[in-house]
Amino acid sequence: MNYSTLIPPNDHERLQALAPYRVLGTAPDAVFDEVVRLTAKLFRVPIALVSLVDEGSVWFKANFGMAGATKVARHESICSVAILNEQTTIYADLAAEPCQLTDPGVAEALHMRFYAGHPLRNQAGYNIGALCLIDREPRQLASEEQVRLQELAQVVMAMLDLRLLLHQQPEHASTTWVKLYDHLDASLTRLDTLAELVRWEDSPTTPTARHYQQSQQEESDLVIRALKRQVQAALATLTQASLRSAT
Fold it and tell me: How many other β-carbons are positioned within 10 Å of the β-carbon of residue 43?
C-alpha cells in the first residue's frame, strides 16, 4: 500500500500551521472532552474524537469512547484521509467498502464500521485535523447531520484558536473556560432529559415520542448555535485585549 498518497502537497506548510496547536499538548482538557461527549450524544455514536494530524502520528486532543487512546500512526488513521478533503469524509460501512488509503486491519481490529470526519481548517485554509464520528455499526449520515458536523468542526477549530489565545493570556483562562464548560454541561443535561423522555414512551413512533425527537433535533441546533456565539464572543474579547496590550 502506498501511504505517500496520504501526504498532501502542502504538508510542510500544513505542519507549520499545526505547530502552535501542538504546543497545547494532548493532556486531558475538560472542555474539549465535553465537546466530544456532546458530539457523540448529538449523533448517537459511541465514539467521537478531535484529532490533530502530525507528521507521523494522529494525536487525539479529545477522545470520547476510546479509553486510553492518545495517538495512532498517521497511516493507520482515517483522519489522515479526512484532512485531504474539503468536505466531510464518510465511510458508511468499512467492512463492505474499506478505506483504501490507510491500513484496513486497524479499522477491523477496532471493530469500526462507520466513520465520518470533517476537517478542522484554520483561518489560513490548512486542515490541521478532524472532528470525527465512529460507530460499531454501519449507518448513513443524513444531509442535515453533515451540516451539523461541519458546524461543530468550525466551533472546535474556533475553540482551538481560543485555547491558543488563553495560553498567551492565562489571566483570562479560568473564567472563560469555566463559562464554556458550564454551557456544555447544561446542554448535555437538557439532551439527556429529552432522550430519557423518549425512552419512557411505549414506542418511538407515538406522537409524543416524535414530539420529543423533534425537540431533540431543535435542541441540538440551538446548542451548536449558542456554543458558536459564546466562543466567537470570547475570541473577540481576547483579541481586543491582546491588541490593547500591544499598543
Answer: 18
Phi, psi for residue 241 in degrees, rounded to 5 = -65, -40
DSSP string over 120-149: EE-TTS-EEEEEEEEESS-----HHHHHHH
Other residues' Cβ atoms within 10 Å of the Cβ of residue 39: 26
Edge-to-edge, what's the strand order for the sheet holding 47-53?
Answer: 71-73, 57-64, 47-53, 127-135, 114-121, 89-91
pLDDT tens per residue across span 72-126 = 999 999 999 999 999 999 999 999 998 988 888 888 888 899 999 999 999 999 9
Q: Domains, the chain, ranges and CATH?
A: 3-246 (3.30.450.40)
- Cα–Cα distance measured from residue 197 to residue 38, given in angstroms and rounded to the nearest whole number: 18
User: Alpha carbon of 153 to those of 5, 75, 204, 213: distances in Å?
Assistant: 24, 22, 30, 23
Measured in degrees and rounded to the nearest 5, phi and psi for residue 138 equal -65, 150
CB 77 within 8 A of CB 58: yes
Q: What are the helix (H) ranges across 71-206?
A: 79-82, 104-109, 143-168, 173-200
Q: Helix 143-168 and helix 173-200: axis angle, to 10°?
A: 160
